Amino acid sequence: SGIAESSLPADLEIGIFPNPFNSACVIDAPGAHFIEIFDIQGRRIMRTGDVSKKGLFTWEPTENLPSGVYLIRVSTVFGCSTGRAVLIR
Fold first, then answer.
1. Quick one: CA dihedral 34, 1, 15, 84, positive or negative?
2. CB neighbours of residue 68 within 10 Å
3. Where are the beta strands (DSSP E) in the chain?
4. Cα separation of 84 and 16, whole Å?
């Protein structure tokens, strides 16, 4: 009996723009303590605790990271939420 997506606190909403992107994207995650980014196989690409007070974080993938779908997990005091970003090289 999990929490329905529509009943999650607003602090768990993730915005990713632009999406798809090719050099950088902004992750809008109000209330985030940290952000983790995983490839589609579940390998963690990065983890950061450096989220601004406004909840904005700019992700600039390294040059060797291939095109594909990446999962972005945001952790807050309310729990975790996941979004998707598409990197196009």
1. positive
2. 13
3. 15-17, 25-28, 34-39, 44-48, 56-59, 68-76, 79-87
4. 8
Which whole-number Å values give the CA distances from 46 to 3, 8, 18, 43, 56, in the listed order? 27, 25, 19, 9, 16
What is the reported pLDDT for 1? 43
Q: What would the two tokens of residue 81 be?
A: 């939420």
Q: Locate 21 and state its tokens.
A: 């992107």
- Whether 7 has a pLDDT exceeding 80, the answer reads no
pLDDT tens for 20-74 read 999 999 999 988 889 999 999 999 999 997 677 788 999 999 999 999 999 999 9
- Amino acid identity of residue 1, one-letter, is S
What are residue 81's DSSP bridge partners? 74
Q: What is the pTM of this model?
A: 0.82
Give 10's DSSP letter. Answer: G
Q: How far apart are CA 59 and CA 79, in angstroms?
A: 21
